[in-house]
What we know:
Blueprint: H1 2-16, H2 21-39, E1 41-47, E2 53-61, E3 75-83, E4 97-100, E5 103-104, E6 107-110, E7 129-135, E8 142-149, E9 153-160, H3 164-168
Amino acid sequence: MRICLFFCISLLLLGCSSKNEKEFRSLYNKQKIHSKTLQKTEKIQLYDASSITKVLLTATYISKIDINKKNKEDEMFIMGLYTENNETEESTLEHFSLMLNGKKYKSIKALKENSKLLKSIPFVFSWTQFYVVNFSHETSKHMKLDIQHILHGKGTAYFSKVAKYISKKKVF
Length: 172
């Protein structure tokens, strides 16, 4: 009886194991990376007087962070910009005022549609222009990104170098 029971349990456990374990692990790793970048992504909308969205900016913080080291690398963001009238000259990111903790950006570089950087971030749409924006290193763990345009107004997004639930110390 014990031998029969042992055989049935072994068969059950072997039948439940995955034949595609490597596929599942690679899919999990992709989703894990996507989830981490999603946590570092914020959205800013700028409206007109009648509360219609004129500008949509998504910003993903992508700098590598090692809190234990005194990392002096630039703060790097991938920003996606959609403006209602994309055909005008003022619809590029260079025509917006960008400030991180009150400091102006160091450089802005437009990305091509097939850039490898775009594969690792969420919210990639064909109607959006993407840029890599570098700011000077911030010693603070918390960052405030301000965007302003003469015609479209201003907006703010908040970023953290550590997980937000760690820095806020509040229960959701």
